[in-house]
């Protein structure tokens, strides 16, 4: 009897389309959406890697499994590996691209909470030092050493390639009348690797990481 060899399961797999349709597919395939820190690590891993994957990861805006919850009071919660994103389905309550939540859900979210005005410089590009000390980037990167390595890589690359002196801006939305959640999306190097917590849900590009290789966070 011939020996059956199980196919090698790819660690990274792209899911592109409506987020409410793609997220159930990610879960069904035994994967989790790539987080901000994992995307940062992946870009660094590919610095000297094959041109195809490297160019894709460094030029494509990619949504992450991290999220930001906005409260009408002007406070926000920065959520790592958001269960609300993971559990999205076509029936999820949405208006205008926002994932809506009720007050009780907002207050039950296990995440650090801040006033928007206390998050530092937002909706502007950052200097190298500002990026290394950005509260939002610190939280989403999960590791200061990773953040500093990534910042140095981004700034060296965008200065050499595009002549940019500033990058990695943190871009937020304004609060609405009801609590809402949006995902964090990281743009490519041509867009200065800005991170956006104001992109509405719709057509997204997620990278699903096989659960056995996810190595959370």
Can you offer a commentary on this structure?
With 217 residues, the chain is of the alpha+beta class. It has one domain (12-213). The chain contains 8 helices and 11 strands. It has helices spanning 19-28, 36-45, 51-59, 83-86, 103-108, 128-132, 135-141, 144-162, and strands at residues 12-18, 31-33, 62-70, 75-79, 94-95, 98-100, 112-115, 170-172, 180-186, 195-197, 203-210. A hairpin with a 4-residue loop joins strand 3 (62-70) and strand 4 (75-79). Mean pLDDT is 90; it is low at 1-6.
Short description:
The chain is an alpha+beta fold and 217 residues long.
Spatial shape? globular
How many domains, in number, for the residues? 1
How would you state the average pLDDT, rounded? 90
Low-confidence stretches: 1-6
Number of DSSP helices? Answer: 8
Radius of gyration: 18 Å
Q: How many E strands? A: 11
As a percent range, the share of strand residues is 15-25%
Query: What is the terminal separation in angstroms?
Result: 43 Å
Query: Helicity level, as a percent range?
Result: 25-40%
**What structural category do the secondary elements indicate?**
alpha+beta
The largest β sheet comes out as: 8 strands, mixed
Oligomer: single chain
What is the succession of H and E elements?
A: EHEHHEEHEEHEHHHEEEE
Looking at this protein, list some descriptive labels.
single chain, 217 residues, alpha+beta, 11 strands, 32% helix
SSE map:
Blueprint: E1 12-18, H1 19-28, E2 31-33, H2 36-45, H3 51-59, E3 62-70, E4 75-79, H4 83-86, E5 94-95, E6 98-100, H5 103-108, E7 112-115, H6 128-132, H7 135-141, H8 144-162, E8 170-172, E9 180-186, E10 195-197, E11 203-210
Parallel strand pairs: 8-10
Antiparallel strand pairs: 1-11, 2-11, 3-4, 3-9, 4-7, 5-6, 6-9, 9-10
Helix pairs in contact: 2-8
């Amino acid at each position: 009897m011939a020996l059956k060899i199980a196919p090698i399961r790819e660690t990274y797999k792209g899911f592109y389309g409506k987020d409410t349709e793609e997220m159930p597919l990610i879960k069904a395939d035994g994967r989790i959406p790539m987080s901000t820190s994992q995307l940062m690590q992946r870009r660094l891993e590919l610095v000297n890697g094959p041109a195809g994957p490297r160019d894709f990861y460094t030029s494509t805006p990619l949504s992450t499994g991290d999220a930001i919850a906005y409260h009408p009071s002007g406070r926000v919660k920065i959520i790592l590996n958001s269960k609300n994103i993971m559990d999205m389905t076509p029936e999820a309550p949405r208006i205008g691209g926002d994932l809506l939540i009720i007050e009780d859900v907002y207050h039950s979210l296990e995440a650090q909470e801040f006033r928007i005005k206390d998050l530092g410089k937002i909706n502007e590009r950052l200097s190298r030092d500002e990026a290394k000390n950005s509260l939002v980037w610190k939280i989403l990167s999960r590791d200061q050493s990773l953040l500093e390595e990534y910042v140095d890589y981004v700034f060296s690359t965008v200065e050499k390639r595009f002549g940019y002196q500033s990058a990695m801006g943190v871009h937020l939305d304004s609060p609405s009348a009801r609590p809402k959640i949006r995902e964090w999306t990281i743009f490519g190097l041509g867009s200065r690797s800005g991170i956006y917590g104001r992109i509405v849900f719709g057509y997204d590009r997620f990278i699903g990481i096989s659960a056995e290789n996810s190595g959370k966070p």
